[in-house]
Amino acid sequence: MESTGKILNTPVSSSASVVERIINQLTEAIIAGELKPGDQIPTEMELASSLQVGRNSVREAINVLSHFGVVEIRRAEGTFVTSSFSKKMLDPMLYGLILQKDSAKDILELREVFDIGIMNVVIDLCTEETVADIRRAYGELEKSVMNPAADPQAVLDQDIAFHSVVNSSIHNRLVNEVAGYIDRITIPSRIQTMKMILENSHQKDFLNLHLGIVRMIESHESENVVAVVKEHYQYWRLIEK
């Protein structure tokens, strides 16, 4: 096949490694719509010619994009832009967040910003059924937290379940996937947070923070979202200092 898009007919720049430049150019072509979900991308030979690079570099770039879930290599058919969302697409972001300097602080801020956006949408779309589901999730969290034999992992599991019900109420798969990834990278510090709460008998205060979310959603108090979310992570913020 022939490459007809402007981006894939432009020689790669020299500001990064050849493989990185090829990855960037293929990605830009997808973002710009020159390559759409399900489209077959040009062959290695065609890309090598249009981008003025070696075939081995093209092959390596395509393999990287395949591992990231951006393209799909079909033997005997060719390489195609992935036509549906893959969890692998979020892995690079996950690793980048974990490895960067001051990641704990940045991850906490990311979670706060994410939750502020989620809460606003939940409040906007809230129904009686939504509130009932969230109240049930709160009830399960309360049972776990107030259990005399409660342990940090069990409490964290119910905390994640509570927030999952809130996130799921807007029926957006990508939001749920991103929320799941944020949960994964916050588990170590949140375990420590739960341990601190249980050891210092702050169970009721912890539950009240969640009850504040329930009541805010139930009352459609969108003007209180930022304050409620920031207050919600007061214990977690102590751990991250």
Give me the number of helical elements: 11
Helix-strand string: HHHEEHHHHHHHH
- Name the shape in a single word: elongated
Count of β-strands: 2
Helix content: 55-70%
Q: Write out the strand line-up for the largest beta sheet, numbering strands in chain order.
A: 1-2
Rounded radius of gyration (Å): 23 Å
The SS-based structural class is: mainly alpha
Catalogue the unreliable spans.
none
Largest sheet report: 2 strands, antiparallel
Separation of the first and last Cα atoms: 55 Å
Mean pLDDT: 86
**Percent range for β-strand residues:** under 5%
Detailed description of the structure:
With 241 residues, the protein is mostly helical. It has eleven helices and two strands, in the order H-H-H-E-E-H-H-H-H-H-H-H-H. It has a two-stranded antiparallel ribbon with strand order 1-2. Helix 1 packs across helix 3 and helix 7 packs antiparallel against helix 8. It starts with 17 loop residues before the first helix and ends with a helix.
Helices and strands in order, then pairings?
Elements: H1 18-32, H2 44-51, H3 55-67, E1 71-74, E2 78-81, H4 91-99, H5 103-125, H6 128-146, H7 152-168, H8 173-199, H9 203-218, H10 225-232, H11 234-240
Antiparallel strand pairs: 1-2
Helix pairs in contact: 1-3, 2-3, 5-8, 5-10, 6-7, 6-9, 7-8, 8-11, 9-10
Brief summary of the model shown:
The protein has helices spanning 18-32, 44-51, 55-67, 91-99, 103-125, 128-146, 152-168, 173-199, 203-218, 225-232, 234-240, and strands at 71-74, 78-81. Helix content is 67%, strand content 3%. The chain is mainly alpha-helical and 241 residues long.
